[in-house]
Structures are given as structure tokens and as C-alpha cells.
Design a protein that fits this description.
It is a single chain. This protein is of the alpha/beta class. The protein has 15 helices and 13 strands. The strands form three sheets. The chain has a seven-stranded mixed sheet, sandwiched between helices. β6 and β7 form a beta hairpin. α3 runs parallel beside α4 and α11 runs parallel beside α15. The C terminus is likely disordered. Bound molecules: pyridoxal-5'-phosphate. The site of pyridoxal-5'-phosphate (PLP) has 15 residues, from α3 and α4. Pyridoxal-5'-phosphate binds next to α3 and α4. Belongs to the DegT/DnrJ/EryC1 family.
Length: 403
């Protein structure tokens, strides 16, 4: 079974990162690299990207509504609420699954305090257009580049357009650390207040526990162990293809824990390889695009060429999401079914039909850079063999709970 996601670090990276973390706190060097890459002078390392969003809002300090897409990670509106703001969901564009400048403009009521220009699934939104839409207003523009490290808009790196930006180093993102994320800004006033908000954060840890989790994540996706990992996934979570997810209303403990030393070292180890990482993902995406294009019942997204995604996964629209999922399972390919919800539903907001339809139809093919050529070929061929409506009844099919 080919895993849906695998960490981008190698065992050699882990060993080297342990060495680095023993000697020094690599956070300082990592911050300098990220600052240079994005042309943002202030970089804060945080426990996760969601905490970066939380800290940006707390630092902005003007509670109000935050505009964000309904097709998004549930932890984002949660962070908005934790920070004392309220989400204002906007529907996404059918082709690219991004929030458009026109939709943002329409949502800009006087109580809107911030806009999250979200590069969901690593697909850049039209952040320049969104920036124009908020120009001249007292609105904080934050780029949610959690999944989009290195993605570009008209050649310019995302995370460099807004008042602030966040990046995630979670296991499924462009560069995986143990966990962690970064909050970037080029504004001195904002940086000053972010520092205050993050003051309770504990100093970075470099414990055995961080090493154990990174090692476990790596092992969990190795060919021998993955079948067990996959069974565990299925046992713990339902294989629902669409659901209404309940948001958490309480800030979890450890939210402000900070980025671990091991994570900083792991990300620093991999940052020189970012161009190769992205090039590999793009070449995989091109293969999948060609494979999916001719298959009835499947379609790639339509993303304008000026937006270069980071391809944390390759989204495919499947008329029969559960059917395509089961087909790929039988072919030995695990695919991602996120986001399998619309945040608008979670917060009891009417509307946002495109987000809802996207949640019910989009699956992600694996596109992490450690996939071998043979695995990529296997995934592409498996997708090509899909026959909508027939595949679901093949003999010897394993039982799968349909959504
Ligand atoms: C993954 C993701 C997040 C959350 O990142 P964490 O580091 O897990 O908090 C937020 N927004 C988007 C668009 C994401 O893809």
C-alpha cells in the first residue's frame, strides 16, 4: 500500500537533526533562512501554523470577523475563535478551490477585522487581487501558506504578500518537521505585539519524546509497517467521505508550547532541498494530470498557470468519491479524503455550496517527494484504470465503509 502521506525527512536527516539539536538551537538559523526566502524581517517559530494565525490575530487586537474560505482546515476557524474573533466564511471558486478577490470584496463588511488569504492544499489563491480588495481598509491581511511553502504567484513566493503569513511543518506539509510552524511579518509594530502574545511560550524542547514521534512517523509509512498504520487509520477514524465536523471550543493545552529544537533542526536540514522537493512534486503532478485527464468521472482542478502550487497532494475531483477511493484502495494506493467537510456546516452557516460540493468530491493523490518513480507510475496507472460505476462491484473487493 502506498501511503497517502509520508514525512519528507530521511533517516539520515533525523540522525543529523538530533546531532544539530544537541549542539544548538537551530531555530535562529531557521528563522534567518525563512526571513530571507520570503523577504519578511520577523519570523517566529510556533507550535503549529494554527498557533501562528492565533498569535497574529491576538497581536492585531481588533476583535471582529475574519474572512476565510469555507473549504479549509477546521483548525483555522478554531484558532480564530480562540483569539476572540469570529469566522466569516466565503465560498470558493469552482476551478481552483480558492477564495476569489470578488468574493472577499463582497464579504468586507465594517465588522471585518482580518482576511486570511488561504493557499489551501498548497494551491495559491489570487493574493494580489485580495490585497487590492482590502487596500485602504483597517483590515489585517494574513496569508495562510501553511501548506504552500515555496508556492508562487506570478513568480513571487507566497507568504510575502500580506501583513503576516504562516507556514506549517506538520508531517503532511511541504517540509515535514516533528511538528511546528512559522509566523512571518515585515511589520515592526505587529512583530512587537506578537512577541508579547508568544511570551508565555515555553523555551524549545529537544527531548527524547520529539525524537520518538518523528521516528514513529517515519516508520509508520515504511512499506513493512504501513499496512498496520492503514488498518489503524480505518479503525480509529471512519472512512467517511463527507461529514459535518464539530469544532473544538476550548484551546487545547500546549497551544503555545513553541516549536521543538528537533523540529527546527529537521526543517533546517531540509531547507536547502526545497527547490528539488518542489520540482519533484511538480513533476509528479504533471504525471497525474495527464493520467486523470482522460478518465470519465475524474477531473483535475483548473488552476491558472500564474499560480504555481506546492502540491502537498494532487487533488482530483471524483463524481463518485467513495467509489474512486475504494478503487484506489484495491489498487494498493491510499488517497487523502480531506477536506471531507465544509467549515460553514461546522459553524451552522448556510450556503457555500461550492465548498460543500468540493468536500464531497475531492480526493488527494499522494505527491510527496520521497515517492519512487515506480510508485508514481503505479498511482498514475491505477487512476487510469478507474471505471466509474463499475469498479465498485469488482470481485474480492475489501469491505470499506462508504460515506
Ligand atoms: C495544515 C493547514 C493548517 C494547519 O497547520 P498546523 O501546522 O497543523 O496548525 C492551516 N491552514 C491550512 C490551509 C493548512 O493546510
Amino acid at each position: 500500500m502506498i501511503p497517502r502521506y509520508a514525512p519528507t525527512y530521511t533517516y539520515a536527516d533525523l540522525v543529523a537533526a538530533v546531532e544539530i539539536a544537541r549542539r544548538e538551537d537551530a531555530g535562529e538559523r531557521l528563522r534567518a533562512r525563512l526571513a530571507e526566502l520570503h523577504g519578511m524581517r520577523h519570523v517566529f517559530l510556533v507550535e503549529s501554523a494554527r498557533v501562528g494565525l492565533y498569535a497574529a490575530l491576538r497581536a492585531w487586537g481588533r476583535p471582529g470577523r475574519v474572512v476565510l474560505p469555507a473549504y479549509d482546515c477546521i483548525v483555522v476557524p478554531e484558532a480564530i475563535r480562540f483569539a476572540g474573533h469570529d469566522p466569516r466564511f466565503v465560498d470558493v471558486d469552482e476551478g481552483s478551490l480558492s477564495m476569489t478577490p470578488a468574493a472577499v470584496r463582497e464579504a468586507l463588511a465594517p465588522d471585518v477585522s482580518a482576511v486570511f488569504a488561504t493557499h489551501a492544499l498548497g494551491i495559491p489563491c489570487d493574493v494580489e487581487g485580495i490585497r487590492d480588495a482590502v487596500r485602504g481598509r483597517d483590515v489585517l491581511l494574513v496569508e495562510d501558506a501553511a501548506a504552500a511553502l515555496g508556492a508562487r504567484v506570478r513568480g513571487r513566493i507566497v507568504g510575502s504578500f500580506g501583513d503576516a503569513a504562516v507556514i506549517s511543518f506538520q508531517a503532511t506539509k511541504v517540509i515535514a518537521g516533528e511538528t511546528g510552524g512559522a509566523l512571518l511579518t515585515d511589520r515592526d509594530d505587529l512583530a512587537e505585539r506578537i512577541r508579547e502574545v508568544l511570551r508565555p511560550a515555553r523555551p524549545p524542547r529537544a527531548g527524547a519524546r520529539e525524537l520518538a514521534t518523528s521516528l514513529a512517523r517515519k516508520l509508520a509509512t515504511s512499506p513493512l509497517v504501513y499496512p498496520a498504520t492503514h488498518l489503524a487509520y480505518r479503525a480509529i477514524g471512519s472512512e467517511a467521505m463527507f461529514e459535518v465536523v464539530e469544532p473544538h471550543s476550548e484551546m487545547p493545552p500546549g497551544y503555545l508550547a513553541g516549536c521543538s529544537r528537533l523540529s527546527s533542526a529537521l526543517v533546517l536540514r531540509q531547507i536547502d532541498r526545497l527547490p528539488a522537493n518542489l520540482e519533484r512534486r511538480r513533476s509528479i503532478a504533471r504525471r497525474y494530470e495527464a493520467a486523470v485527464a482522460g478518465v470519465p468521472g475524474l477531473a483535475p482542478l483548473s488552476i491558472p498557470e500564474v499560480f504555481e502550487p506546492s502540491w502537498i497532494q494532487f487533488p482530483v475531483r471524483a463524481r463518485d468519491k467513495a467509489g474512486f477511493y475504494r478503487h484506489m484502495q484495491r489498487e494498493g494506493v491510499d488517497v487523502t479524503w480531506t477536506y471531507r467537510y465544509s467549515c460553514a456546516d461546522s459553524y451552522g452557516v448556510q450556503g457555500c455550496p461550492v465548498s460543500r460540493a468540493a468536500a464531497a468530491t475531492v480526493l488527494g493523490l499522494p505527491s510527496y517527494p520521497t515517492l519512487s518513480d515506480e510508485q508514481v507510475r503505479h498511482v498514475a496507472d491505477a487512476a487510469r484504470r478507474y471505471r466509474a460505476g463499475i469498479a465498485a462491484h469488482g470481485a474480492g473487493a475489501p469491505r470499506a465503509k462508504a460515506g
